[in-house]
Request: fold
Amino acid sequence: MTEMMTAFLIWCVVGCFMFALGLYSFFAKNPTGFWANAEMFQVTDIKRYNRAMAKLFCAFGIVFILLGLPLLFGQDTVWILFSIVGVMVEVIASMVIYTLGIEKKYKAR
Reply:
């Protein structure tokens, strides 16, 4: 039982980190980047862009924590596949939302 709780707590720490990144983005004065080691593009409205990024990161963190709930039932159950596949879908969805929604809307032309 303690291994399952430990695994879920570690999972929650990662989700809380993403949520905290969203809170940081909400109050940031400079544009928040999405891609690692990529040069940031010119943003038309920094405040609205950061708010959109904050929503994306906070939603990612909350959904990530919810996807970790099967860890409470054990890592050797079939439900763990829900967590694995769910995180893959969540990451791809967040990349699509950023690229086709946020970046396209706030990128200076």
Remarks:
- The helical segments are 2-27, 46-67, 80-106.
